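TA notes, week 10

Several of you asked for a full example with nothing omitted. So below is the full record: C-alpha cells for the whole chain, then the designed sequence directly under it. When grading your own attempts, check the secondary structure regions first.
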C-alpha cells in the first residue's frame, strides 16, 4: 500500500503536458517565415493521422487579437494534416498560430508557430495563456489510466489463476475480483468523462455536460470506452443471474466465456493506444492484445497466488499442484511477453540510437530493468515452490495411521454377575482400547519443518515479486503516453515542400547560445528562403533569455559544406534595426551545410555556435 501511494504521488507531482504518438513534421507557412503576401491557409503535417477539435486553431494578429478563421479540416482528404482557412486580407506583421489536435492513439498534442506578412514585428507578451495544459485534468487522467491497468491485470489474472491453477477453494478470491471489477468500471467511467477535457486542456467539470458526453461517444476512444463499460456490465449481469439461480455452467463453457471476455476487454486497450497508429497496425493490435493478456495472467495471477497463500494456514492446506501450475503459466506468459515486447520495441524505436536519445527509449530501458528484477524475483519464487512441492510429498508419505489393539478378555471374578437393567436400546459394542502412541518419525518431522520454511519463504518471495510488478505497471502506463522513438525520428527530418499555398517553404533554424556572461544567453533564429541551392535571402533574429527581441552589436553567419570542401561562405548579414538580413546569398550546391553563427553581445563577450542545415535542389 505504501508503494502504491508513493507511485500515485509521483504521478500527480510530475503531471506534465501529455506526449503523443503524432509529431509535427512540417508546417506551411514554415515557422518563422517572412512572406511577401498573406497565405490563404495554415497547414500542419504530422507523422500519423490526427483528429480535429472544435477549436484546433487559434490565430493571433500582431496586436494579440484573435483572428476569425474558418473551421479546421484535413487538406485534400489527407488524415495526417490539419488545415485552417485565413481571411482574405491580413495586416502586415507577425502572426502566432496556436494549435491542438488528437493523435490516432488518443493522445492530444499541441504547439505554436509564427509567420510574418511583409515584415517581422515583436511578438506580444503573455501569448496563449488559454492553451496550456490543465494540471488537474492531466493528473486525474493519468491516475485513472494507471488504476485501469492495475484493475485489468488483477481481474484477468484471477480468472486465469482459477481456470488454470485450480485452487481447492475460490471463496477468498471473490472479494479481490469484485474490487478489481468495480475499480475497472469506475476508472473507465472516469476516463470517459475526462476524455474531452483531456483533449482540450479544460477543467474536469467541463466533461459533465450532455453535449460533451455526446461528443465523446462519436470519437473512437469514446466508443471503445463505452464498449469496455458494456462488457463489464454484461459480465456483472451474467454473474448475478447465475448466483441468483444458484446455477453453474459446465467447465468448458466457463473457460470459453472467460477467454472471450478477456480477449474482448484487452482489445478495448489495443484499439486506442500506440498499436492503433503507425506501421503494421493489424499485427501491432494482435501483438498488444497478446501482451496485455500475458501481463495480466502473470502479474494478476501472481497477486491471486499471494492472496491464496495468505489465506492458507499451512503447507498442507495448499496442494502442491497449485504453485506448480502457476509456475508453468508464468513461464508461458513470460515467453509471450518477450516475443511481443521485442516486436513492440522495434516498432516503437525504429533504431538503436533512439534507445538512448529519446524519452521513449529511456523509459523502455527503465521498464526492461524492472522486468529483469521481476524475473529474478520470479526465479526465487519458482525455487521455493519447487522445494515446497518436494517437502510436502515426503511429509505426507511419512504420516502413519494409529493402530488399534484387540480387546482383552475380562478378568475372572468371584462375585455373581448382576442381572442387566432393562433397557429399550440395544447394547453398545465395547470400544477398542487405543494403542500406545508411536515414537516420533524423524523423517516426517524434518519434512514438515522444511515444508513450513519453504511455505513462508515462498510467501515473502511472491510479495517482493508483486511489489516489483506494481513498478512495471507504472512504467507501462508512462510508456503508453510517450512519443515513440520512430515518430520522434520522423519529426526530425527536414520539412517537406509546401502543399497548399504555393509559396516557397523556407528553412528555419533556431540555435541557442551562451557567452557565459550575465545576460549573455539566448537564441538565434535564422531563416533561409527558399532553402534550396541557388540564391537565397537570409534573415536572423536574436532573442534574449526572456524570449523577447534582443539587439546585439555584431552577428556573423557563415556556411560550410564539409563533404565537398566548400566554404566558409560569409552571408554578410546587416543590421536592419531589430533583425539582421541579406537579400541575396548564393549556396552553390545541395547537401547538408554547417551553419556557424557568431554572436557578440558586448565589446568582450562573444560566442560561436553551429548547426546543420539541409539544402535541397
Amino acid at each position: 500500500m505504501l508503494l502504491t501511494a508513493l507511485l500515485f504521488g509521483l504521478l500527480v507531482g510530475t503531471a506534465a503536458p501529455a506526449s503523443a504518438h503524432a509529431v509535427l513534421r512540417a508546417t506551411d507557412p514554415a515557422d518563422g517565415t517572412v512572406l511577401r503576401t498573406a497565405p490563404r491557409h495554415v497547414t500542419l503535417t504530422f507523422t500519423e493521422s490526427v483528429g480535429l477539435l472544435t477549436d484546433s486553431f487559434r490565430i493571433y494578429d500582431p496586436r494579440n487579437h484573435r483572428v476569425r478563421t474558418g473551421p479546421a479540416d484535413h487538406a485534400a482528404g489527407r488524415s495526417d494534416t490539419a488545415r485552417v482557412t485565413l481571411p482574405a486580407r491580413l495586416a502586415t506583421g507577425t502572426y502566432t498560430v496556436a494549435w491542438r489536435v488528437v493523435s490516432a492513439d488518443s493522445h492530444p498534442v499541441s504547439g505554436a508557430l509564427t509567420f510574418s506578412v511583409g515584415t517581422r514585428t515583436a511578438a506580444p507578451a503573455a501569448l496563449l495563456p488559454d492553451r496550456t495544459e490543465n494540471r488537474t485534468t492531466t493528473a486525474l487522467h493519468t491516475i485513472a489510466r494507471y488504476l485501469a491497468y492495475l484493475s485489468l491485470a488483477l481481474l484477468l489474472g484471477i480468472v486465469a489463476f482459477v481456470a488454470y491453477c485450480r485452487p481447492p477453494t475460490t471463496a477468498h478470491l471473490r472479494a479481490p475480483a469484485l474490487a478489481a471489477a468495480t475499480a475497472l468500471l469506475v476508472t473507465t467511467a472516469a476516463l470517459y468523462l475526462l476524455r474531452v477535457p483531456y483533449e482540450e486542456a479544460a477543467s474536469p467539470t467541463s466533461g459533465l455536460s450532455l453535449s460533451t458526453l455526446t461528443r465523446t461517444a462519436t470519437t473512437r476512444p469514446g466508443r471503445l470506452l463505452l464498449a469496455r463499460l458494456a462488457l463489464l456490465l454484461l459480465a456483472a449481469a451474467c454473474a448475478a443471474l447465475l448466483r441468483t439461480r444458484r446455477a453453474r455452467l459446465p467447465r468448458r463453457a466457463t473457460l470459453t466465456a472467460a477467454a472471450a471476455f478477456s480477449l474482448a476487454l484487452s482489445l478495448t486497450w489495443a484499439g486506442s493506444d500506440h498499436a492503433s497508429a503507425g506501421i503494421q497496425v493489424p499485427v501491432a493490435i494482435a501483438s498488444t492484445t497478446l501482451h496485455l493478456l500475458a501481463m495480466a495472467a502473470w502479474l494478476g495471477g501472481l497477486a491471486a497466488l499471494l492472496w491464496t497463500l495468505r489465506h492458507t494456514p499451512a503447507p498442507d492446506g495448499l496442494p502442491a499442484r497449485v504453485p506448480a501450475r502457476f509456475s508453468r503459466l508464468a513461464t508461458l506468459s513470460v515467453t509471450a511477453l518477450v516475443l511481443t515486447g521485442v516486436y513492440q520495441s522495434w516498432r516503437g524505436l525504429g533504431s538503436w540510437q533512439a534507445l538512448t536519445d529519446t524519452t521513449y527509449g529511456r523509459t523502455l530501458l527503465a521498464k526492461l530493468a524492472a522486468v529483469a528484477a521481476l524475473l529474478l524475483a520470479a526465479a526465487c519464487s519458482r525455487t521455493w515452490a519447487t522445494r515446497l512441492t518436494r517437502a510436502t510429498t515426503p511429509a505426507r508419505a511419512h504420516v502413519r495411521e494409529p493402530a488399534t489393539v484387540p480387546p482383552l478378555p475380562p478378568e475372572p471374578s468371584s462375585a455373581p454377575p448382576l442381572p442387566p437393567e432393562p433397557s429399550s436400546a440395544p447394547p453398545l459394542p465395547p470400544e477398542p482400547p487405543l494403542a500406545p502412541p508411536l515414537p516420533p518419525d524423524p523423517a516426517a518431522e524434518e519434512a514438515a519443518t522444511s515444508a513450513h520454511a519453504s511455505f513462508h519463504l515462498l510467501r515473502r518471495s511472491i510479495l517482493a515479486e508483486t511489489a516489483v510488478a506494481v513498478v512495471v505497471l507504472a512504467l507501462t502506463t508512462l510508456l503508453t503516453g510517450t512519443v515513440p522513438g520512430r515518430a520522434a525520428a520522423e519529426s526530425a527530418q527536414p520539412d517537406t515542400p509546401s502543399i497548399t499555398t504555393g509559396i516557397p517553404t523556407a528553412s528555419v533554424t533556431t540555435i541557442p547560445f551562451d557567452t557565459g556572461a550575465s545576460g549573455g544567453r539566448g537564441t538565434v533564429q535564422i531563416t533561409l528562403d527558399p532553402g534550396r541551392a541557388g540564391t537565397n535571402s537570409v534573415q536572423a533574429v536574436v532573442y534574449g533569455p526572456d524570449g523577447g527581441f534582443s539587439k546585439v552589436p555584431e552577428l556573423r553567419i557563415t556556411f560550410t559544406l564539409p563533404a565537398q570542401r566548400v566554404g566558409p561562405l560569409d552571408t554578410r548579414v546587416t543590421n536592419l534595426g531589430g533583425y539582421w538580413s541579406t537579400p541575396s546569398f548564393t549556396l552553390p550546391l545541395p547537401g547538408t551545410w554547417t551553419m556557424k553563427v557568431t554572436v557578440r553581445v558586448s565589446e568582450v563577450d562573444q560566442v560561436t555556435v553551429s548547426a546543420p542545415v539541409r539544402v535541397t535542389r
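Confidence is low (pLDDT under 50) at residues 1-20, 124-131, 395-405, 491-504. Use that as a sanity check on your answer.
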